Each structure stands twice: as C-alpha cells, then as structure tokens.
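PR domain containing 5 structure dump, as promised
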Amino acid sequence: HACPQCESSFPSASVLAEHVQTLHQRGPEEKDFRCRSCGKRFPVKQALQRHVLQCMEKAVLPGEQPGGFQCGVCSASFVSECSLEQHREACRRDARFVCKAERCGKRFKSKDTLKKHKQNVHLGSSRKRPACNICNKKFSSSDILMEHRKVHEIFDCQDCDKKFISANQLRRHMITHSEKRPFSCEVCGKSFKRLDQVASHKVIHSVDKPYTCKLCGKGFAHRNVYKNHKKTHSEERPFQCEECKALFRTPFSLQRHHKKYKCDLCDKAFVTPSVLKSHKKTHTGEKEKICPYCGQKFASNGTLRVHIRSHTGERPYQCQYCDKAFSKNDGLKMHIRTHTREKPYQCSECNKAFSQKRGLDEHMRTHTGEKPFQCDV
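structure tokens r here:
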C-alpha cells in the first residue's frame, strides 16, 4: 500500500490511512519542506528526501535539451516529469473545451484552440486514416502515426545483450558501461555516473537517519541499507549460487557473485564486457594510460584511477556501517563482510565457510594434503 503523496509503503490500508491522516492532512502553512525542482511541499524532511530522489531520477540527462517534458494542453515545457505533473493538474482545471473526435479527448482552454485542433488533426477524418504496418492500429494523422511507431522500435546495447524501447533509455543505460563519472558529491568528492546517484549518496552525509535497528540501535539513512543490516542479526543465507553452491544473505550479494564474461586467457570472470576488455590488456601488455604524477603506465582508465589515489590519498568507497573508507571497491567489499558476517565461500568437504576465496583455498589444502610452499634452507 503506497502513499500517493510521499511514495512511502505500508503493510496494510489501515496503517496507510493513519499515515495520511497524521502527516498529510495538514494546512499548507504546516508543510515546510519544498522540492526545488517541482515546487511540491512535504510535512516532514524524510518525505521530501524520498521525493527528491525520484524527481531527480526523472530529470533530463546531460546533453539533452531542457524542457524535454511538454504539456499536451498548452505546450509548456518542463525539465522533469514531476514538474510537468504538477502543472497538468492546474492546466486540466482551466481546459474546459474537450475534443469529442474518436479516440481523442484532448482538452483546450478556448474554443479557438479547439477549433484549430479539429482543423489540423481531424479535418477529413472520413478519408482513409494512416495505419501502422506492424499492429494495424489507425491514427488521425501521419504525425501521430510516426510517434506511435517508436513503440515498436528496439534499441540494442552494443556492449551487452540488453534491449530498450527508446533511444533515451538506451542512452541512460550506456552510462553504466562508460568509465566517465561527471557528477561528484560536494561534501566528500566521490564521483558518480548519474545525477540521481549523487542525490541518493548525499543522504549518508545527513544527520537524519530515520531507520533505526531495534536490535542494536544503529541508525540508517537508506531503507534498503537498513533492511540489509537486519539480516546481519540472522545466520540465514537463503540465496545459493547454482554453480559453486556459495550461500548469500541477500539477492544483491548473489548477483555480484555471478560474473558471466570470462577471460579466455585465464580463469577470471567479469560482470560487464567492457571490464573484460580492459582486463585482457593485462595479458597483451598494452598500457596506454599514463599517471600524471609519476609517469607509470596502465592498461585501463580504471587501474590508473585506482593508482592515482595512492598519490592523492582519496578513499571514495565508504562503509555504510562505520566510518572506514577505502581506495578500492574490493577492499570495501571484504571489509563489509566483517559487519555482515557473510561467508559466501563454503568447503565442499566439511561445510566450513569463509569470507574470502583465499581462505577457502588455504583450507582446502587440509583435505588434499597439498603443501606448495617449500623451505629453501
């Protein structure tokens, strides 16, 4: 049961009703928290924070034309879908003249604009209407048909097997394959690929932590982080890898574990083909990226970026459970397991589990009797 005003979710209709009565049935003067993007007001700061994440998520991408969301009644343009929706409510109240042509129903603020609409769109509707050659649906004009045909277009990602129904969706997705991180947090300097990721990240710098664990008292800014934390108090690991039988507490941990792009020159596997491509340069010896501080060469922008942190001291990967920060994401992942007590690597002989693969490899020698290290003396 979702609240239509602040996007919060509740287990029952009665709890939702109590929430609405407590927080939303108040006068405008009591709603002190306002979204700068669309002007919507909220009674509590947490409701505004949740709304801002969705509002920014729908904002236009860098390079797109501003005003990408247009009102169908008055043609006014807005930078986000949320802003447009706020405008539409007022616009529809003013638009009293409705076009009664078949499958139209558009509203207009004056008789003149309604008349022009009928002349431009519906005049001569008795003649044969243009139809879509894929689904045979008919339309009142060729322009509307051209817009409809976009529904049938499929946009393929060249780096992975994902498909999208619009060029805009594909463009957003392609950012995940790029190594560019144009957006940064002004508080800690951590960089991100998308603006909505910055908004989500900045909540960790806020003193407001609305989600509190009843078992240990820890507070959390994000609901999903809070839910994952609660699982640290349980030994249950219901998610299992079908290939290696490793066990995980969350589906996200299992997803990270799966790496389907495998290197044909070694045993390593990777999440995306672009990372695999960078990895293969370590076999060919190709090193095109040069460190501006010491001149050392690297095979990819990613490895160069990690190396530069040894000069700058930057530690962009911060633990969500404590104040520790790391220069590498792998270091953060291993550290987080000290909080979650997650041990995904399980011995097939005695069921003993380990937090790192290296620990499992060393343990397996107790079963195989292998002793690879020999004293030179």
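Confidence is low (pLDDT under 50) at residues 56-66.
lmk if u need the other ones
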